[in-house]
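Case study 2.
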Amino acid sequence: MARTIDIGSKVYYAEKALEWCKDYFGLCDRKRTELRFKVSERKRKFGNFDIYGNYCFWRNTITLYLPNTITIHDIVSTMIHEYTHYLQSRTRYRDYEKTHYYSQNPLEKEAKRNEDKYTKMCIRYIKKNM
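Prediction:
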């Protein structure tokens, strides 16, 4: 069973994961404003599913929902997932939304692949550089 972490640790790991994402993936050159990051202490759901985080294309903001992210892995994988959306085209995402279910959206699949591929690498980096 995975260990839960306190709010301060969640914010720390989220900030460090965001720094790692910026260094590893680079910045999006289509954005006019700097990427913002915020946390919410409210639980967010979509139907029966807990939402761990989201990226708002309009506000250029990643929001992490702390009650839903329980472990370091949850925090880091969510940040990588949402950072991938930050790098993606809003127009392309909207086009796919019209023709694909959420789970079949190619840009969601890309975000999930990045999360699966890079989470352990990012966690190792954060722990090594604490």
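The chain has one domain: 7-128.
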